[in-house]
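Throughout our pipeline, every protein is held as a single compact record rather than as scattered files. Such a record has a labelled line for the sequence and another for the backbone structure tokens. This encoding replaces a full spatial description with a residue-level series of whole-number codes. For reference, a complete record is included directly beneath this paragraph.
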Amino acid sequence: MNNLRESPLKMKNMNIENITEDEAALYDRQIRLWGLDAQKRLRAARVLLAGVCGLGAEVAKNLVLSGVKSLVLLDHRTVTEVEIHSNFLAPHDSVGKNIAEASQERTQILNPMVQVTADSSNIVDKTTEFFTQFDVVCVTRCRQDELIRINDICRQNKIIFFAGDVFGMFGYMFADLQEHQYVEEVKERKPVEHNGKKQIVEETKVVKQTENFVPLSQALDIDWTSKKYSGQMRRISPAYFIMQIIMEFISLHGRNPDRSHQEEDEMELLTIKNALLEKLNVPAEKVSNQFAGGDFSFVFIRIVFGQLSPVCAIVGGVLAQEIIKAVSQKDLPHNNFFFFSTLDGAGVVECIGH
């Protein structure tokens, strides 16, 4: 991995130094798993995590334990009764306090070697200069237009970008690593001669690879009537469109679907679904008939309230894993969406917009 060319992302600006004896002892199992060079890259990574919800707590935990250099928790919201049940980093007596500040102490305790800070500002007020401090930007709990704005800033400044969210029993992740170089181990079978007999043996080789990503705006703006995508419609997961329906709801109302407005929110989600699928020229049954024996439109509008902790753990685990892979430049990354729903208990990776 020493010979891997640096990614064109901001990795080239990272101050990659030798790890200390204490760090080597703490991260011993990780170093054995993904190598010393990968751990050095993680140790140099400066990460911004915007949105300290149940999903954000899972991502923060996994990143801090992996040994990144620094983690900034950014969120202007306050802790609610609902939050303390999904965000295990916020103490139960912190209701009414800023959620980023309330989550800082427990996050720091997980790994004293990582610099953890809290920022109670609103992400919409952050300028381009703010984001250029980081090597990785991960955004949750954010409107679609703001996600696109931040993704564009990251692209312009060669910064790794991730986005994700959990809505009840449904969650997603998006990654934009631009042009990403990485290495992976590949097994090759080759014939050898031993004692006059030919045998087939397996050898493991480290191979350099490149994966290209597209921005979120391009991944969301698909012409489903085009020759390229009309043929893919059948195999694309309905979860992609569910994500867009919820994003549209948030854009219109400035909040997630809420239990306190459940009846009207369910009707609004159904209205948005019908209008959005018609606008995208996507058959209505793409969402409504996902599961045999039932109307999926009826199902999905009832499962997107709150943040279910097990879903946060699964999506947060995948999201943190992909950040670690991107920073360490080791192993094939998910390109570019990951979706999970408890309705079928399955996670699916989709590559959309290429």
About this structure: Confidence is low (pLDDT under 50) at residues 1-8, 289-294. The chain has 15 helices and ten strands.
